[in-house]
Amino acid sequence: MPLSMVDKMIRLNLMSFTRPLNVTEFIPALSTYRVERPFSLDDFREAVGHYFNENPLFSKCYLIERQFEDPEDFPISSFQEVVLDEYLNYYDGFLLMSVTYKSNPNIQGIFTAFPMSMQDGYRCFRFQQALMSTMKTGKDQFRIAETIAELQLRTDDLGQYLPARKPFIDDDEAVRMMPWVLRETIEPTQKIGPHLDMVKEEFLRRQSGNLLVMKNASYGSSLHFGNHLMYLLVPSEVVARSSGSQIRDYYKAQAAEVEKKVAQLETPEELAAAGEAVMPGIISHPRRFGVNNYGDVSPYDGSDFSPEKGTLLKYQWHMPYAVSRGAAAEGSGMHMTFTLNGKAHHFLTQRR
To answer: Distance between CA atoms of 20 and 246, rounded to whole angstroms?
Structure first.
């Protein structure tokens, strides 16, 4: 069976990151829900078990729980500490954490740390919502085996693409605090053109050199594993002369060219060579301003079925240190966005 575009993007991204896989490559993310009662660790354990059913990338996780006095006691600035402190327990899988608060028993969080080469940020979000849905319904909402069959994916050879896992932390990887802070804002939702106009304004203010668009190659896919990102560069001269809509047209044309090139890759050697060239190619373009937009995630907020058991209130995440440390450099930065129930949630890095 030939490899589909989804097959190839998963393999390409598996080969794009540092090997062996280390602590700097894990994405921390937290979904916060309103619940009628907190789900127990047994509920978590039973639900996540469905995720491993014929999953070719993940077969285990490290499950823990943490309780804080208030949600303010677990800010996004502290996520990296959890990634670092628990790494030796989850390095060969991923971290799954139930988060509760003494001040409000009707608020619960799902926190995860996934390796980015194996799970892009959007699929971290989708994993958390599928986990909550599975706990609410008592039925498998990941549908890993069914989705693989529906998409006719090849999984028999994925093992040869998986990275080795590093079971220790080197001194230069022991980062407890990101070299930037995140400014979170909530505004009325915008169409992509005006949104990119806003991004352009920040890009020009910082005198950035390249707009790095992290575009999901398969938003429509119901697949809950894999990194499906394309990394598209828009030079400063194009950004400066273009409207937001024109910037979108430019990177969409780039995406089409990337898909053509990826479509020509067939052998493991070709996919490995192409993957290994991705990050050096990005790094060779200085003063990068990254953009990542999940789009409208409202259909996954849990309000369609037993909303009292769990409805999404907030989602917070940031890119792993290996990817986002460059955002602290002069002329660089990162802007991440998702839309929930008519509100755009923005996360913008600021240098410390």
So the answer is: 39
Sheet strands (E) in the chain? 26-34, 62-68, 95-101, 107-115, 180-188, 210-216, 229-235, 288-296, 311-317, 333-340, 343-351
- Ramachandran angles phi, psi of 213, nearest 5°: -95, 120
d(CA 311, CA 258): 37
**Torsional sign, CA 256, 261, 267, 272:** negative
Residue 208: closest CA among 295, 121, 347, 326: 326
Of 99, 90, 77, 97, which Cα lies nearest the Cα of 23? 90
Residue 271 to residues 21, 202, 206, 274, 276: CA-CA distances in angstroms? 18, 35, 35, 5, 9
Distance CA 46, CA 224 (A): 17
Task: Break the chain into its structural domains and give their ranges.
Answer: 5-351
288 pLDDT tier (thresholds 50, 70, 90): very high
Residues in the chain: 352
| pLDDT tens by residue, 243-265 | 999 999 999 999 999 999 999 99
Model confidence at 190, pLDDT cuts 50, 70, 90, reads very high
Question: Which are the contacts of 149, defined by CB distance < 8 A and separation ≥ 6?
Answer: none
- Euclidean distance between CA atoms 124 and 151, whole angstroms: 20
The pLDDT value given to residue 57: 97
Going from the C-alpha of 80 to that of each of 111, 177, 318, 320, the distances in angstroms are 12, 6, 9, 9
Please state the rounded mean pLDDT for residues 211-226: 86
Please tell me the distance from the alpha carbon of residue 284 to that of residue 275, in angstroms, as a whole number: 15
Q: What is residue 219's predicted lDDT score, i.e. its pLDDT? A: 57
Between CA 11 and CA 26 the distance in angstroms is: 18
Bridge partners, 33 (sequence order)? 108, 312
Written as six digits, the tokens of 146 are 């069914």
pTM for this model (two decimals): 0.96
pLDDT at 2: 86
